[in-house]
Amino acid sequence: MRLLLPLLLLALAAAPRPAAADPSARPDLAARLPDGRKLNFRCAGAGAPTVLLEGGYAADSLGWGKVKAALAKTYRVCTYDRAGAGFSDPGRLPRDGAAIARDLDRGLAAARIGGPYIVVGHSAGALYVRLFSNRRPQDVVGMVLVDPSIEHQDRRFAAMFGEGAAGVGPLRARAAQCLAAAEAGSLPATEPPLDRCVPAARPGQDPAAAAARRAEAMRPSTWRARISELDTLWGATSNQLSAARQSYGDLPLVVLTADGTYAAAPEAARQPLANLWWGLHRELARRSTRGVSRVVKGSSHMMMTDRPDAIIDAVDEVASQANMLKRR
């Protein structure tokens, strides 16, 4: 039984973008890594702690618009483009969680974006910020995980719903088609399914920003990075987390579960899926003595779009617990 996954919902959803003077038209803060590659960061606001926002599959530095704008009134808030996305150079394959967390660690040092940090990870991005927190346990003072993916969740879904229930096969197949078209120089395309590989300009979008987004989607390196992230998700990335620390001690931790993640699933499977998803998130929250698991009503998997307030409140809650909340 193959079910629609949060990762697929994320890839099909339209991430929010500023309509005018869109910063995606140009890089912002390019941090040079030890191997010479550049990692593009975008930061706003001031104050401690620094809040790091990490998106899920196919996400870039611009997917947190409402959340970032609100948090920047109190904290320094940074997003970035992972290797091969946006304005960041591609990295050596595979693009597993360890490689992503290592890039983030080194990129922050190169860009002189200091801690302490509150890390916020959405979907697959939650796996990456958890691995980053393992690299910087003294600097990460709190975590907010937004409808997070869980290591080896494919096994748990398969046990309940059959082999392939948590597979990313359809999503990977689409990315492979886009990669082949990009390598052949046949993007953008107007016929399905390749017409979805390159985003069309939105009404009112800055022309330079639209051109930058199209150029990104036409690069083979973009699709190679995305495919590698998918290929390692339930393998290497999950293994890296399973081999790492299983307790977060008393680290302030909030795990947010969207109540609508499986709203489009077949009716008979909808509630069992939701129960399993929330159960996985409760297990994760219990890894900290200060962990909280919370279901967010009226939210799809894209919580930063339809319930940004829940994420903002969770960051404030974690910061307060860490005794670092700045007076408003």
UniProtKB/TrEMBL annotation:
Has the keyword Signal been applied to this entry?
A: yes
Highest taxon above the source species: Bacteria
Which InterPro entries does the record cross-reference, listed alphabetically?
Answer: AB_hydrolase_1, AB_hydrolase_fold, Meta-cleavage_hydrolase
Q: What Pfam families has UniProt attached to this entry?
A: Abhydrolase_1 (PF00561)
Keywords for this protein? Signal
The residue ranges of the AB hydrolase-1 domain are: 49-161
N-terminal signal peptide? 1-21
Keyword Signal on entry: yes
**PANTHER family, alphabetized:** SI:DKEY-122A22.2 (PTHR43139:SF52)
**What name has this protein been given in UniProt?**
Pimeloyl-ACP methyl ester carboxylesterase
Q: What is the lineage of its organism?
A: Bacteria, Pseudomonadati, Pseudomonadota, Alphaproteobacteria, Caulobacterales
